[in-house]
Amino acid sequence: MDEILSLLPGYNCGSCGSRQCRDFAAELKSQGDLQRCPFLSREMFRDNLERLSLLVGGAPPAEEKIVGVIDGLEADFMLAPLKDECSCREFIHPFDGSIEIKIGDFLRYRPLGCPVTHFAKVIGIDPGIYTIHLVGPLHRLGQEDFRFKDIGLCMILAFEGKVSRGELPKVGQTVKFVPEYCMMQKVHSGMVVGVEGKEIRIEGIDLKVW
Q1: What pLDDT sits at residue 141?
Q2: Rounded mean pLDDT of 106-130?
Q3: What are the DSSP E strand ranges found in the chain?
Q4: pTM
Q5: What are the residue boundaries of the structural domains of the chain, listed by start?
Q6: What are phi and psi of 64, to 5 degrees?
């Protein structure tokens, strides 16, 4: 069981229906049970999933449909960070333009259409538009050395990342996708405006997919 536990994501998020990862590990009876964990399908855990499949019996699972956990909608692909980056690049526009923001600042904000507060680091600035890396819906707020600027409600203008699982889209295609690091595993939508290999840019982002 310890080996199985070491291969699980360790988030203790409860998305699988168990109270924590240790309980989930104890309940695993077959490779089908592994599908209860939405994070094991991410690229970063792909090797772990194959090893877990062998440990609980059977071959690694075949590619399955990508379904948002929070909304049950089917997505075209998972969007992963670009090489050596911690999250997809997001391009945001704060509704409150009075706050001075610099590269390297940490921001607290809520995307329009999402109920979760996000924390991000600014990596680029254009007039009214900030390029950010997401550092978490939840952060180490108890640490005295962590400072952030609260910028309130923001519009999400674009994503840049790479397709890690699912269908590679074409330029001009309207798509449904799930960012790998989204804690809600929510389906987003938008229009693909750039494709280079598996790296893509999506604009016209809508978090309210119908």
Answers
A1: 47
A2: 92
A3: 66-67, 74-75, 77-80, 89-94, 106-111, 118-126, 129-136, 149-166, 174-179, 188-196, 199-206
A4: 0.69
A5: 2-64, 74-206
A6: -120, 170
Would you call 123 exposed, middle or buried from its count of C-beta atoms within 10 A (0-12, 13-18, 19+)?
middle
Cβ distance 77 to 169 under 8 Å? yes
**Spatial CB neighbours of 100, under 8 Å, sequence gap ≥ 6:** none
Architecture in CATH for domain 2-64:
Orthogonal Bundle (1.10)
Q: Please state, in angstroms and rounded to a whole number, the distance separating the CA atoms of residues 181 and 207.
A: 15
Q: Encoding tokens for residue 171?
A: 């330029």
Which two three-digit tokens encode residue 142? 């108890």
CA distance 109 to 117: 6
The amino acid occupying position 93 is H
Give the residue from 29, 37, 17 showing the smallest Cα distance to 7. Answer: 37
Of residues 209, 11, 167, 196, the one with CA closest to residue 78: 167
**What average pLDDT does the segment 139-148 reach?**
60
